[in-house]
User: Fold this.
Amino acid sequence: MPFRIVATRRTRPLLLPFAAALLAVTTGPAPEAVAQQPAGSAAAVEEWRARIGERPLAADPARAAALADRRRTTDGLTSFLRQPDPWPAIRQARITQLLPDAMRRAEVDAWVVLTRENANDPLAAHVGGENAGGAAAVLFLRTGEGVRSLAISPVGEAMALADLAIHDSVHAIPRGADVYAEVARTLAAADPARIAINSSERRPAADGLSATQRAALEGALGPQLAARLVSSEDLVAEWLSVKLPAEVAVLRDAARLTEALELEAYAAVVPGLTRDADVARYLKTRMRELGVGDGWSPSQNPNVVSGADRGHSHATDRVITGGDLIQTDFGIKVFGTWVTDIQRFAYVLRPGERGVPAEMERRWQAGRRGNRAAFAAMRPGATGSEVDG
Assistant:
């Protein structure tokens, strides 16, 4: 029996304009032209899969042309990926322009980020410590309205840090020297009242300090300075939650590309033949072609679920068929730094259906109203719980 697919948008990312109405996207020609899964044995079905390829590519010319149009639309959104990596300049601007206010709002006078090879701090790349070899540290000290930054690193890596010109100064120490003692001497001279360290029960991004690192640091600081240690969780939230205009531009482009890839993948679906895993494989292939990374754990991205809700899981070999609601949760990483996380839904029409069922439409509109209400509540000063309520 022929099917076609109606794709729907759950919510547009906040950095893009909101859709005014439900979007219907057909993925092929009239229903009677849609390719069907052949009858017969499992071997015959696998032969059919092999003939059209691993991708869930439409078998008939008209559907293939519709998919080609979608691909051209997607490819037209990739020009931003060909620009020089904007991260080095943006990282520098984030430190000089945003960090001082973040430290002031979090009421901390110093921030210590300890870095090391292979088991590095989650924020190492944000402070220029992503290439740490031996144990090293990055310190930020409030100075009036600004922040002075200092990197303490073994010689060798210290030269590379100096070349990056991220920090106001780089202090090279002999390989094997006690970096904790150097940190303690610097902090003793600065005499900050509150010293932030990356230890947090609430925010994983602010919890990169291991128990052994903390013990070594406290031992070097001594009781008086160690008593001034506080979690960096508020500082990290204040700093990372604010984006520069150049970052917003990258995020807008990445969000548009993510959505286009999801709608393209839906255009490649052949109901009765395509599996959830085929949709996921299609997106993985396109990611490799475009040179973008995974927005989160590769084994969980994308999460494609048709039929009954399985929550956040890997895509399975379930075959997509009429009456299914398909949920794709997908994200990409661009320039090795910025990630997206966008869901798009599609409803697969049953034989004879010409639109989304009334109950499905009702649920969609209810979700849309909730989304718009939350967006309207997002104003400076509002808390997350107020928006969610």
Remarks:
- The first strand starts at residue 5 and ends at 9.
- Confidence is low (pLDDT under 50) at residues 1-41, 47-58.
- The radius of gyration is 26 Å.
- The CA atoms of residues 57 and 268 lie 5 Å apart.
